[in-house]
Fold these 3 entries.
Entry 1:
Amino acid sequence: MEAVLNFAIFLPLLGALLVAVVRNELFAKITAVSLSGFVLLLALILFINFDFSKEGFQFETVVPWIKTLGINYHVGLDGMAVSLILMTALIFFAVFVWSWKIEDRPVLYLSLFLALETACIGVFAALDLFLFYLFWEAMLIPMYFIIGFWGHDRKVYAANKFFLYTFFGSLFLLLGIASVLVYAYFTQGRISFDYAFLSSVDYPLWLELIAFLFFGLGFAVKIPMWPFHTWLPDAHVEAPTAGSAVLAGVLLKMGTYGFVRFSLPFFPEASKYYAPLIFFLSVVAIIYAAMMAIAQNHMKRLIAYSSISHMGLVTLGTFALTPEALNGAVYLMIAHGLSSAALFFSAGFIYDRIHSYEMDRLGGLARYIPYFTVAFFLSVLAGIAFPGFASFVAEFLILLGTYAKHPVWAFVAGVGMVLGAAYSLYMFKKVMLEEERVPPERIERWKKLKDLEPHHVITFALILFMALLMGVYPYPFVKVVEHTARLVLGG
């Protein structure tokens, strides 16, 4: 099974190189869909074979790399990592299917997405901090070019802002890694980037408090937490549809993943010390971003602010430090990844047909594209935590676990969830209903619209089926996710 994980990490990169060398459009599309589908199958095999009753990491591979610095190629999975890799593989497969008809430089486009898939899976699998940082930084390059080449009007501005913000956060993450590495070297007499070794070191409180801030700044920018969030709406608005789906569905989860993987086990006392600050920033993000979403007229900007609000709920659950809330936080990473990707695909479909994201220019579409209307409505329900979808299970666990220790924070977060339902349903109403406010010339144009095509149907079916399966039958997914809570919190 160790080989399966390594194949899942590097097959997309091999595909990217192959596509770039051959430089044939049809070959590029077939290769991207086939390889990403095979990676999805490998991720599913890893998930099915994961033993949630077994402690520690599984499917590990350790190969010495730079021995003098204690750097190894070390990968392995716990419950959170295997779940996020399955979600990542599913979203990338959906992206390649969705992009089947791309005409603008498809070879370069698909090569960049394949390379990005390797970086994303590598981040979730790495158990060596040098390797983790390498994958973390490698992710920036393809996403920068995806936004900058295939984005909309202000694409270069958005790409530069995305790169500068995330690179700024990465510098603090590097300082955090250096701080724990140096302390471990002077106290243990050994230099090593190994996760198990560094997590076993007993750091003094003063170092925990400093290193937590370094790691936390790096993760907070990536999530993004308020007030480091301003790059995200611009990046989403200008990014192409597939770029927005990966950005919201996968890349935002790396920050919250980092908090669970590194901050909680490395700095347990600092995590408790800073928990009130994290609660405050999380609740501000939940309420503020929800209010900003309500004020938007641009579909993608509204969905972007909804992502900030939902990720605030994830950080709240993470630092509630209860098993239920942590399980819910990890579950919401996956649930939000699916629902946000579906919502951005919905916005992208509308743009492909009408060439506008402005809700004032839409309306009354439900009569003319009924199949898309169903897919869009289900995507909205998945995003607002409607019972039967994965996000309902996740948000219920977060509120349950948070309320046990912090009832006031849980109540305020619940208000943000109500606002989320309000702006999401408002968006659907403005875009798909309200036919009476649409002028006659637009009605004539709407009558000529083409409904879902096969590549759209496959994309929505995959994502919504997974969201429904995790909502209707959450048991196996919760048990796998619970493996991480036991690893981090004990018990």
Entry 2:
Amino acid sequence: MYDAIIIGSGPNGLAAAIALAQKGLSVKVFEAAATVGGGTRTQELTLPGFHHDVCSAIHPMAVGSPFLKTLPLEQYGLEWIHPAYPLAHPLDDEPAVIMHRSLNDTIQELGADARAYHALFAPYIEHWEELAPELLSPLNSLPSHPLLMSKFGLRALRSAEGLADTWFQTKRAKALFAGLAAHSILPLDQISTSAIGLVLGIIGHKIGWPLPKGGSHKITKALAAHFESLGGEIETEAKIETLRELPQAKVILFGNTPKQILRIAGNQLPDSYAHKLRSFKYGAGVFKIDIALGGPIPWKDERCGQAGTVHLGGTLHEIVQSERQIGQGVCPQKPYVLLTQQSMFDSSRAPVGKHTVWAYCHVPNGSTQDMTEPILRQIERFAPGFRDLMLDYHTMNTSAMEAYNPNYIGGDINGGRQDITQLFTRPAGLLNPYNIPGTSMFICSSSTPPGGGVHGMCGYHAAQAALKYLGTKQG
């Protein structure tokens, strides 16, 4: 008998496994794929020698994670690269807006909105170490810093469109904030979308938006190696269809979303809880394209070539419109595109003189529409001649995303819709979101707080809930 079994070896599953193994528990992880990784794997998707991140690419939350930063992952080959600029947001007929690591350098980009941008971000950048554990925790305890949290909440629990329109005057500042907030994968007129923009901006200035040298797979390879050094076991190519396939264990942790948990655990879930899981809402999906290039992207504004991430969407109004269309079930013809260019900073990603491009846009959940042309048009809009450099490309629609990672239901990379109804109480609206009531089973996936992102905090908190349960039972 094991003390704990975990299904899934993504960042959350491995974080949970490590947190349990650190306490001396016997832990085994089962992974359906041939390698660990979940949403953090790197493959040659186009041509030989071009190494593309299949899912996640840029990882500010991994470096800023209160749990992951305590682990000696650098001992297992994890090395972070910081581009010259975390983010660039090009605009038509004027210089791009650059988000620098330095807050003071960033406000120089914003003209009349310099003071407003500083006032919006500075208090939280200064206190990120206190704020991070609060923001990346479930709402089942009183905050340790109530004044700081309440001040943040007044701004975070607003729509991104509303905050940007009332807080800023200039097109540049509004566009920059819209691009940050659109990572929420929600229409920007919805409450709480500003929270995502604030958090990503704070981290960008406090920590940066780094990428792992050699590819995103380096993160989970390092986590797996550390887990095994603690005595943990990992079995790959082991797809779990029912609980009967598992060895005996005191607790089971699911690194899965509600749909899969219902399939695996079935009639062993309390009826009322199963009903809540069936009511769980999945969010919009993504369409992704990876490109092998014969040279660097020919940006109109050359500074964009020094940014790890580039947001292609134009103005606040354009981004609001494209994300609203997705909420209405329509694929936009001028989508908001997230693009990264890791090979500009990591020579291991492509042959000498060649480059990789990673890009995706949001689409309605389950959409099968090919968004290759709309994405390429948006890139070409800010980088004329881009198509002439393309050597090969590889696309993944929502079905391909789900086939690659079963947690991406309908192409939803966040483990569920992160609107105000599910942001803090996912997946079932319970005070303890990790424990399945009346059972020794727990959920450690991004379908629990604090939600999507490579930070491992869902797994960490689930492990704490399991440890508390085991302490109670053993006592």
Entry 3:
Amino acid sequence: MSLEDLRAERIKKLEALREAGVEPYPIASNQSAEITGVTEGFEEFVESGEEIILAGRIMAKRGHGGAVFADLNDGSFAEGDSLADTPEDEKGRRGTIQILFKKDVLGEESHVGFEELVDVGDFIECTGRLFRTERGEKTLEVSSWRMLAKSLRPLPDKWHGLVDPDERFRRRYLDSLMDVAVKKRFITRSRMITAVREFLDDAGYLEVDTPVLQPVYGGASAKPFTTRHNALDMELFLRIAPELYLKKMLVGGFPKVYEVVRNFRNEGIDATHNPEFTNVEFYAAYTDAPKQRKFVEALIRHVVKKVLRGDTVLYDENEINVGADFAVIPYLELFTRFANVQTPEKLSLEEWREVAERLKVEYAPEDGIDKVMDQIYKKTARLQLIQPTFIVDYPATYLPLAKRFPDRYQLVDAFQLVMGGVELVKAFSELNDPIDQAERFAEQDKIIAAGDAEGQPSDEDFVEALEYGMPPAGGVGIGLDRLSMILTDTKNIKEVIYFPTMRPKETK
């Protein structure tokens, strides 16, 4: 049958329910327990002999006549569930229990009603007592049932689910419903973010909020999304980073702040980039990049241990050990080690272009030294950094908000963390010299005027805040989508964003 025919059949059943005086979408359920709790405490429930009320979605029906079995799933999961947990049964599905409908228990009318009017995908409520079948399967014998929500579209085939990746991302609700591994991936992501918050809270950081709509975008080198506020008649930008606002809070007397943020960057979409993504940024007064490196190392260990119950992560067939000391390598040394570039600090823009051409690395005609170097680094070095590695000592022009070394004025005290060939963290000792910051902004304005849409524009309000005084500080940004990719061994950022940005589906 076609989808249209199947939908029409279900609408007939919906009408039959209403004609029989049954409300197919009641306002509430009388559920007395979650299925995961029932299956984990099964023997105690059986010993009590009391009736319980379970609610959930019918995931399968089998049998006919006097006895009909079904699988009921309420979506519940155990505290601490993650990819590290062993599935409860051979189906690997939490929150599922077998239910039995017997004609001699339910009565003719109720039994026939279930057989003829209830489909896979419907939500129902079941009252009954628990027992084990001869095969030992945990089962609820139903004494009465009630419709909670009649589904009008059939679920995907339970054996194949959604095969087309595009359809999986567009209908993630079906993807996670039919594939327990997908659901557990998002449970793991949630556990990860909770673990990050716990670590920061325990370290004395205060969680705060900063604006999503900003009159001047800043805090990162990226092209923003632009919008307009009609009442104020002004142009606004969706946040590309919360950095400048969080540092204003340091000025305002808050020594340790963090924010789990949704950032928006008007950029391309690929395996590690989505225009809307999740970061955590945190800033601490009276510290610097080297101290924050140690802090980040401890944070990563905490998260992995909390989520995966150990010190290792399997990613892309590589075992990554976060229990050992993280490696440290200067940014410029990467070019010598992986691209055979001698004295990289002395090369001109033209010479870097020659290196890029030799290595068949693409770059745009308007790209300056920093962008050409970055493209070379991404192709030659980054993918080879499998074990946790801190890259340090970046050119000052690369990070216009970072503090210079006093004895190496062309470099800034900054680092990135790479694991599994994926950039996870960017951090630096924060620039708090308002004169230097204004000059660095002026240089960025020149870059923007020359055609670089990802330059960081001058923010006079931020410079003014610095003039009131900001303590020395270390700031860190961690890509939570990418970290969840590592923890769940997935290679596409769409796999860890429940609603990724998608091109509108073509209609005929």
